[in-house]
Write a structure and sequence with these properties.
115 residues, mainly beta, four-stranded antiparallel beta sheet, 11 strands
């Protein structure tokens, strides 16, 4: 089995930045695509960004230019640098990972953007 643990969330003022981290552990031989999703209260979970094992990234239009996804394959980690944060970015951020075509999810880390 594989476990994912997110960290790095917190309370930040509008315009601030955070770096979210997701660590994968367990029975891992290789990880294909990794991604970040978010879910605000009352909303559906939405895709934020993905990154392939080769480093190709995809971003939702709402975060393009502000967020950057990256990964460290040797450490089985994926990161999300979130800049120029807006109140509408407030959500629980979840990472996921494709391990041998099985998708795993973490429990999420809370990002709150407020004055």
């Amino acid at each position: 089995q594989v476990q994912l643990v997110e960290s790095g969330g917190g309370l930040v003022q509008p315009g601030g930045s955070l770096r979210l981290s997701c660590a994968a552990s367990g029975t891992i031989f290789s990880i294909n695509t990794m991604g970040w999703y978010r879910q605000a209260p009352g909303n559906q979970r939405e895709l934020v960004a993905t990154i392939t094992s080769g480093g190709s990234a995809y971003y939702a239009d709402s975060v393009k230019g502000r967020f950057t996804i990256s990964r460290d394959n040797a450490k089985n980690r994926v990161y999300l640098q979130v800049n120029s944060l807006k109140p509408e970015d407030t959500a629980v951020y979840f990472c996921n990972a494709d391990v041998l075509s099985v998708y795993y999810w973490g429990q999420g880390t809370q990002v709150t953007v407020s004055s």
